[in-house]
Every structure is written in structure tokens, then in C-alpha cells.
Amino acid sequence: MNRMPQNIKLSKNARPVLVVDDEYYVTRGISYLLQDEGLSCITKNDSDGVIELVAKERPQVIVLDINIPKVDGFQVLKEVRQRKDFDDVVIMILTARGHEEDIQAGLALGANEYILKPFNPLELRDKIKAVYAAKQGH
Questions:
Q1: Which of 26, 133, 136, 137 could form a disulfide with 21 if both were Cys (CB 3.0 to 4.6 A apart)?
Q2: Could you list the residue range(s) of the whole structural domain that residue 48 is in?
Q3: Nearest residue to 106 via CA among 119, 116, 96, 93
């Protein structure tokens, strides 16, 4: 596995990570892991108001479950990708839905990554850090 540099110096105006998952322990665990890396993290446990939150907070990365209350993650993904002002947002689906048609639908709707649960939190952290490193030219 390709290891990321341990110390990515974030600019003061580095954009946050938004984690949307109905499982509280998943959102909190990811949030703690990313905060330990110096990343700001916002969590939601349903889809209510997610598009407005994306518009307000301008996350660099969205970690998005498919099976979330209110509107499913595929619809959230579709709505985010329809907005041109969100083109640079990296969307990583994190879900237990591993059927080939689900994976293909997620990628076709514009997900940058499709990660299956159970997942390795350190690998997810490294993928997210890689996004920030690439944006900062590391």
C-alpha cells in the first residue's frame, strides 16, 4: 500500500470533510480520526439539509453512505453532481451495498470512490489525506 506523508500542512482555509452516515459510531469514529490529522469534520446522520450544508460549508470531501434516512445517498450524490459550483468536491461512497449494480450506479452518478463496509478506517483516512495532499501540490 502506498503510504501518505504523515504531516500534511493544511492551509488555514482548508475546506472540511462532510461525513453523512446513519450510524453514529461511523460518523464519530471517522470524525475523530480526521480531527487527529488536523482536518475539520462535519457529521450528519441523515440527508435532511445536506445540499444546503454543502453550499454553506463547501467541503473538500464528502463521505456518503447510501442507506441514510430521508433521501438515499444516490439522490444526494445526484443533486451534488448537478450543481456546477460543487464540481471540485470529492465524493467517497461508504456503504454496505456491494451489489455490482449499486457500485456501477454510484460511479455513474459521479462518485470518485466506492468503499464497502466493513472498511479499514486507516485506509479511508489515507484516501482523504491524499485528496488534500493533491490539492496542495504535495
A1: 26
A2: 17-135
A3: 93
This prediction's pTM: 0.91
- Residue 12 domain flag: no
Residue 8 belongs to some domain of the structure: no
Q: State the cell numbers at 25.
A: 459510531
Examine the pLDDT at 13 and tell me if it is beyond 80.
no
Assess contact for 63 and 106: CB atoms under 8 A. no
State the distance between the two ends of the chain, measured CA to CA, in whole angstroms: 18
- The answer to whether residue 108 is domain-embedded is yes
- 61: how many CB neighbours lie within 10 A of its CB? 25
* pLDDT digits 0-9 by tens, 47-85: 999 999 999 999 999 999 999 999 999 999 999 999 999
For 138, other C-beta atoms within 10 Å of its C-beta total: 13
